[in-house]
Amino acid sequence: MAERFWENLSIILAERNISWIELTRKMFAGEFHYPSELNRLYQKIRH
Length: 47
Known about the structure:
This is Transcriptional regulator. The chain has 47 residues and is an all-alpha fold.
């Protein structure tokens, strides 16, 4: 299940033309919000 989370995140980054470094910077700056489907997937992994 965790592999799919990272695969999906990689696909979204590619679609938005964002690098992993840019994603990290945006997350720390509070500018990036996960799409709701990834949030649901993450919640399933946690529980």
